[in-house]
Amino acid sequence: MGESNSIAVGLTALSQILKREKSRGSETLLLKSETEEALNALPMKLMKAATMSSVSAAEVIPEKAAPMARQNAEGSTGTLSSAVPKGGEAENEKWARAQLNEIFKEAKNCEECRGLGTLRDQIVFAVGNPMADMMFIGEAPGSEEEKERKPFVGPAGQKLDQIIGATGLKREDVYISNIVKFRPKKGDGRFQGTSNRKPDTTEMAASIRYIRREIEVVRPKVIVALGGTAAEGLLEVGGSVSGLRNQVHEFNGVPVVVTYHPSFLLRQEGEGDAKKAMAMKRRVWEDLLKAMEILGMPISEKQRGYFL
Ligand code: URA
């Protein structure tokens, strides 16, 4: 396990112990609120430090980094674009596929992820177009994804397909990935059946380097972060989706739109409040319209008035 990540693991554990002791009324461990806040914020800060030191652009962008050339030609704000020469489309795609394959192999053997002991063994990497303009990022695979070894193939995936379809794009046109590449365990993982859970900050810290590198390779023109957990892991920000979705964020020069996770929409639909569910679906669609506008995609009147 890398040094920063092992510190993050230790600090997360310490933070949990302190919280527990506090809830038990222990006086000897009572901390000032600033100390508590600083302690709680440390894993996220270390996550940033760990990725900054472990993933340099040079590591993933070779001298003839073709996908960046595509961005050059189109005036991207990408931070690395100016150093990169132009390549042909087929050459770019070949390069991107090879790079993603490398990242896949490294992620499969991720020692930090395995070292946590909280993630299951089967890797679920990414699907889609390595040259995509639009990239969707979720939190972690669930049971269906683990079985099929592909992200977003279960009920949340079907909802996502519907969202993608409404934009006029197909699943093969976009790139779909997750921050955490292994399904989080519940208990020791042996009896969890189809039950899933969100990844925690430590699991995201151990995995974040891979999605950062995927973004460097695919170099999408817009990223859609699905849900608060994905947004928190990628952007290192806290807060609710309803707050985060009101602005366009940025990751390494790539605009990021935050929206509700498809599972959240499914839960809303299942709760029987049709009006509320419809309002949430409309919000997601508005976020997608924002992403389409960033890409300069044509938007019809029908699409503008659409409810998912
Ligand atoms: N939820 C996610 O965040 N990712 C998946 O791949 C599936 C469900």
Written description of the protein model:
The termini are far apart. The chain has a six-stranded mixed beta sheet with strand order 2-4-3-6-8-7, sandwiched between helices. By secondary structure, it is an alpha/beta fold. It has helices spanning 3-23, 33-54, 57-60, 66-73, 89-108, 111-116, 143-148, 155-166, 201-218, 228-235, 241-244, 262-270, 274-295, 301-304, and strands at residues 119-123, 127-128, 134-138, 175-178, 182-184, 222-226, 249-251, 254-259. Helix 1 packs antiparallel against helix 2 and helix 2 packs parallel to helix 9 (201-218). The protein has two domains: 3-84, no CATH class; 96-304, 3-Layer(aba) Sandwich (Uracil-DNA Glycosylase, subunit E). It is 53% helix and 11% strand. It is globular. The model is unreliable at 51-85 (pLDDT under 50). The protein binds uracil.
The main sheet orders its strands as 2-4-3-6-8-7
The named CATH superfamily of the largest domain: Uracil-DNA glycosylase-like domain
CATH class term of the largest domain: Alpha Beta
Strand content: 5-15%
How far apart are the first and last residues' alpha carbons, in Å? 43 Å
**Secondary structure tally: strands:** 8
Structural class: alpha/beta
Any low-confidence stretches, pLDDT <50, length ≥5? 51-85
Principal-axis shape equals globular
Order of helices and strands: HHHHHHEEEHHEEHEHHEEHHH
Largest sheet: 6 strands, mixed
